[in-house]
Specification:
The complex is a heterodimer of chains A (about 140) and B (about 150).
Chain A: E1 4-12, H1 18-34, E2 38-54, E3 57-69, H2 71-83, E4 87-94, H3 96-114, H4 118-123
Antiparallel strand pairs in A: 1-3, 1-4, 2-3
Chain B: H1 2-26, H2 32-42, H3 47-50, H4 85-89, H5 99-103, H6 115-118, H7 122-137
Helix pairs in contact in B: 1-2
Classes of the chains: A alpha+beta (about 140), B mainly alpha (about 150).
């Protein structure tokens, strides 16, 4: 089932050339599509100072890759990243459950906004116990 | 008349000693469960403070009054009730990527600040702590800051 969404963040050494970086990203993308997944987004978060020294580097280029696919796909991607020399760290987080929860909250929030009259508004907060809330724009 | 003068004095001392003995063991933190019932039965001097969310320790942050977990420096006065920042501002998602948000809950040494100091509620503290650990793994937050 290809319904899992993952977020893969990795750090590339800072002295890497841009075009090499793009080559690396496109290699990963082809790996994703060949195993039947989809790349949702690629975000280059730029050079940042690392909180601690990793492989004798003090800063690095952060890249965030959001993919949709199966678990085997992530296995393959991580294997590639481990082998790739410029990549010094990576972390994969599964985000589809979190997305579902956030969407549920948003849906409830919208339903509550539409159904302004009291009886309808009283019914909806009863369902989610501690998570109902208004939108709060995330400061990232 | 002599009895009258003696009786209130005796009562007062009787009320004081159980209260004192109640506050002594209860100041040892979470074991205040047993001693608080003794305290409320003796003079009720601490009962109004304790009668609220007594059973579940995951209520709002440090309880008022020194005894009961707020042992920093032996303070005995009222600490202002801390509310969970995430509940108040309705921040739904705690991500490892927003370092600014997470850094407010990390001490200078890099340690995660306990819930009783920040006033965060339990589910949010759990998510916060796993987000901090993820951020540490990806070098967005340090494992150990400046050594003390």
């Amino acid at each position: 089932m290809i319904n899992r969404t993952y977020e893969l963040m990795f750090i590339v050494r800072p002295d890497m050339v841009d075009e090499e970086l793009d080559k690396l990203i496109s290699t990963l993308e082809t790996a994703v599509t060949s195993t039947g997944g989809t790349v949702k987004s690629v975000e280059k978060m730029g050079k940042r100072r690392l909180a601690y020294t990793v492989r004798r580097f003090n800063d690095g280029m952060y890249i965030l890759l959001t993919v949709e696919g199966s678990g085997g796909l992530i296995h393959e991607l991580e294997r590639r990243l481990r082998v790739t020399e410029p990549v010094i760290k990576f972390i994969t987080v599964r985000i589809d459950e979190e997305q579902k929860r956030l969407d549920k909250i948003k849906k409830l929030r919208d339903a509550r906004k539409k159904a302004v009259p009291a009886p309808a508004a009283a019914a909806t907060p009863a369902a989610p116990v501690a998570e109902a809330g208004e939108t709060a724009p995330l400061a990232q | 008349m002599a009895d009258e003068t003696k009786a209130p004095v005796a009562e007062k001392t009787a009320a004081e000693t159980p209260a004192a003995s109640a506050s002594a063991p209860s100041s040892s933190g979470p074991s205040s469960g047993g001693s608080s019932s003794g305290g409320s039965s003796s003079g009720g001097s601490h009962a109004p403070h304790r009668s609220g969310p007594r059973d579940s320790r995951d209520s709002r942050g440090p309880r008022p009054g020194g005894p009961g977990g707020g042992r920093e420096g032996g303070r005995k006065f009222f600490r202002r009730k801390k509310v969970c920042k995430f509940c108040v501002e309705k921040i739904e998602s705690i991500n490892y990527k927003d370092v600014r948000l997470l850094a407010g809950f990390v001490a200078e040494s890099g340690k995660i600040v306990p819930r009783r100091l920040t006033g965060v509620c339990t589910p949010h503290q759990r998510r916060l702590s796993s987000a901090i650990k993820q951020a540490r793994n990806i070098a967005l937050l340090p494992f150990a800051g400046r050594s003390n």
